[in-house]
Design goal:
Among the domains are: about 40 residues, no CATH class; about 70 residues, no CATH class. About 55% of the residues lie in helices and about 10% in strands. It has 7 helices and 5 strands. It has a 5-stranded mixed β-sheet with strand order 1-2-3-4-5, with helices on one face.
Length: about 260
Amino acid sequence: MLARLRAAARDWERSGHAAGLLWTGEVAREARTWRQRYQGALAPVEQRYIAAVLTAADGARQVRRRLFGATVSISLLAAIVMAWLAWKQTQARRDAITQAGAAAVEAMRARDATRMTAMRALPGDPTTQLALLREIEDTRAPPPGAAQEAKRLLYAGVAPVVLMGDGPLYSAAFSPDGGRIVCASSDKTMRVWNADGRGEPLVLRGHDDAQVPDALERFVEAFEFCWNVVADKIREIKISIAVERDGSDSIVRKQVV
């Protein structure tokens, strides 16, 4: 090591202390260890050279430490920023969900308020009033007065059976035995229901006289066998009724297809 040191110090001195001739890396670490153990005397140029090597090595080590600290600090800062952005995104998503939930609740309450208004506009129809009350969505916090109206309607003569059609109903009649109800509507159909409302109706298509109650009553009388057809589980019968009237408005011709 001493011979190497003398040669390197001589070249360094001749070059005017060129930094590129200083030992670095593993050689500088070996020189540090050797210098700590070497007890002999060194020439001034050798002392200056090895001192320059050790100073440069210490400086490089400090630079590396600073770079490492800066890298750790930047990584930590980036992690903090990413965590903050993730928290903001999560918070924004929660706020959006909360706002959407609040908007849905407001829309539900608005619909319920509309139902209450429509219900109060039908004082003579308790059945429809009760149907509107049953459609209220916010059962946990119903509109003011909904519970009182529901109790009142329990004793207001609500229809026990409600038959629904696809269009306005113009007339209806019971079968002779009272077990069926036939309804004529504007969609040119007659529906035969069980009087208790159970099951699906038998649909009779093709009539053209839905607005005349007398025609419906005579239809019921003339086609009483239709009630037995329901019992035989026939789903649909197409009936075309051609109606002609004399001066007394009586039906003189019927045709079943």
